[in-house]
Design goal:
Elements (H helix, E strand, L loop, with lengths): L2 H6 L5 E6 L2 E2 L3 E2 L6 H11 L3 E5 L8 H10 L4 E4 L5 H10 L3 E5 L5 H14 L2 E6 L2 H9 L4 E5 L10 H9 L6 E5 L5 H10 L3 E4 L1 H5 L3 H9 L3 E4 L5 H10 L3 E5 L19 E7 L9 E5 L11 E5 L2 E7 L10 H7 L4 E4 L7 H8 L3 E4 L4 E3 L2 E2 L1 H12 L1
Parallel strand pairs: 1-4, 1-10, 4-5, 5-6, 6-7, 7-8, 8-9, 9-10, 11-12, 11-18, 12-13, 13-14, 16-17, 17-18
Antiparallel strand pairs: 2-3, 14-15, 15-16, 19-20
Helix pairs in contact: 2-3, 2-10, 4-5, 11-14
């Protein structure tokens, strides 16, 4: 295992931050991009590794990789259309730690030969698939690091849903990279919950006024959930404020029950909230609370993606307080969603004490049950994301 693979195996969601001046699908992105300046900024912002386009179709060159190598000791991925051992040797000499191998362009014999050559040179490989047959090939070839690209390289169309299903199908002993089409924290979290160890982000960063700051934003935690939404205008206000997760209570007994999961922007994730068992909905995630006799819901809940538990919700008892609530939550391990009594006034302190994966607020943001106070929603999201 080389430096590239080792960096991507670290706990939590990692990122491969990309340097590219243009895209065949979008045209010029950042024609004046300077790898010597951007690469160390990416590393300082938390990139696990840095991808450098070396192909002229992306206005890249091997000199870009050399400049990045001279400016940072972060693991570097040489990204291009490589098909010969000479390509790999050139990448190694230019300072790469890993190379991209596109299954779309390579047969199994060539891919195996290139993986073997890369190993001899001390290079890791990122073997990229775009569809299920290619993914099955990557798994059969025992590629240690597998990328799933949401972009169809023939049509340039993005299909995140198909990408996530492929990500979820990869064995857990592989390093899994979700590539392309990630522009928000929620989209990165969707890949994480499907099983991705890291996201590869290029165009989103290159279009941002400050690419490194955008990278830090995508990786920042906790995520912010606004729950108990019942109105379209409240959904819009929460999304515009920067909330990542939008919750809809589908337990009829709740005073903030929604008739259905409302449409949400694709930069966010919808969460259906249930008591006892999850039903059918259009939500991205299901939050299922335990049942407690005489109460609307039990205290804690589990967050599910496609029926698989992906996080724990640590909450207060219905209608009650618990002075040790934050202390209890801080002792939990894994992905924790902290809920219960959070609002603009205390969410920053709660985050500092608990360090949760996400925070969740509902009743404290209302002017009436199920009706949000938009000023409080904005204040809560701002406090949580500061």
């Amino acid at each position: 295992m080389g430096r590239f693979e080792a960096a991507l195996r670290r706990p939590g969601l990692g990122a491969i931050a990309e340097i590219k001046r243009r895209s065949p699908s979008a045209g010029d992105l950042r024609p004046d991009a300077d790898p010597a300046r951007i690469a160390p900024a990416y590393a300082a912002a938390g990139a696990a590794a840095i991808s450098v386009l070396v192909d002229e179709r992306f206005a890249g060159s091997w000199d870009d990789l050399r400049a990045a190598r001279a400016a940072t000791d972060a693991p570097l991925l040489a990204k291009g259309f490589f098909s010969t051992p000479d390509d790999l040797r050139t990448a190694k000499r230019a300072g790469a730690d890993a190379v991209l191998l596109l299954l779309r362009d390579l047969d199994d014999a060539t891919t195996t030969a290139l993986m073997d050559e890369a190993s001899r040179l001390g290079l890791d490989t990122l073997v990229e698939a775009h569809d299920r047959p290619e993914l099955e090939r990557a798994i059969a070839l025992r590629a240690p690091v597998v990328g799933v690209n949401a972009r169809d390289l023939a049509t340039f169309a993005i299909d995140r849903a198909a990408q996530l299903e492929l990500v979820a199908a990869i064995p857990s002993n592989r390093v899994v990279i979700a590539e392309s089409g990630i522009a928000s924290r929620a989209q990165g979290a969707a890949a994480e919950l499907a099983g991705a160890d890291a996201i590869l982000v290029g165009s989103t960063l290159m279009r941002a006024p400050d690419p490194a700051a955008k990278l830090a934003e995508l990786l920042s935690r906790p995520l912010v959930k606004v729950c108990g939404l019942t109105l379209e205008e409240d959904v819009a206000a929460a999304a515009e404020s920067g909330a990542d997760l939008l919750g809809f209570v589908l337990a009829p007994e709740s005073p903030r029950a929604a008739e259905a999961v409302l449409p949400v922007p694709d930069t966010t994730l919808a969460v259906a909230v249930w008591v006892g068992t999850a039903g059918d909905s259009s939500a991205d995630l299901d939050q299922v609370h335990t049942v407690e006799r005489g109460k609307i819901r039990g205290r804690d809940a589990t967050l599910y993606r496609a029926g698989e538990a992906v996080a724990r919700v640590v909450d207060l008892p219905w209608g009650e307080d618990d002075p040790s609530h934050w202390e209890r939550a801080a002792r939990e391990t894994g992905r924790i969603v902290l809920a219960g009594g959070l609002g603009p006034e205390n969410v920053a302190a709660a985050i500092a004490e608990v360090q949760p994966w996400a925070v969740d607020a509902s009743s404290s943001l209302e002017r009436a049950p199920g009706i949000k106070d938009h000023d409080r929603v904005r204040a809560y999201v701002e406090a949580a994301r500061t």
